[in-house]
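Rotation project, supervised by the postdoc (A.L.). Task for the rotation student: set up a whole-complex structure prediction and record inputs and outputs verbatim in this book. Inputs entered:
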Amino acid sequence: AQSVSQHNHHVILSEAASLELGCNYSYGGTVNLFWYVQYPGQHLQLLLKYFSGDPLVKGIKGFEAEFIKSKFSFNLRKPSVQWSDTAEYFCAVNPLTSGTYKYIFGTGTRLKVLA
Amino acid sequence: NAGVTQTPKFQVLKTGQSMTLQCAQDMNHEYMSWYRQDPGMGLRLIHYSVGAGITDQGEVPNGYNVSRSTTEDFPLRLLSAAPSQTSVYFCASRRGTGGNEQFFGPGTRLTVL
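Outputs recorded:
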């Protein structure tokens, strides 16, 4: 079955620390990839997305992610986190098979940034 | 544009009661879906629709019904609420089929006693 794994369930960092959140998926075909963020008490918002082309994609608020096809990974990074980055982060995969409209979400990573 | 709206924001039900969670979008999106969010389990797809009159099951459809009579509305019905359906429910919509950003509603927090 297709799945998305986010290995870090809880991450605690101090402000200015660097961030990397892992995301791996199990699907051998072409995929679209997304990272969503959910700030406390809010709904999910798109951070960034990858469809094709440059495997290093940049999103909002200084986030970036790198697609490594050979590793089936799409890790999220930020060089220097801020207290306002405290949120839950979800990786999502959209397998591009005929008739497939589904997005598969990972279980999420809760990030807490200490001021 | 209001985007994706959901009502109610909070709801408490007793076991066996039924109710409908409302979802509407004003972006003329073809695709709409319902997810439930549970701690440690991420978002799981309940039902989805690729257009008016077309719905299909996601990975956790049992105990829920949906219909899509218009492009704008996609209500989720709980037929006979159970404590296992205590969760936060999100509706989402997107343009077209695959590859486009999903826009999420603010969620409905449901507690079943």
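Student's summary: The two ends of chain A are 40 Å apart (CA to CA).
Supervisor addendum: The interface with chain B takes residues 4, 6, 9, 32, 34, 36, 42-46, 49, 51, 90, 92, 94-96, 100-103, 105-108 of chain A (CB under 8 Å).
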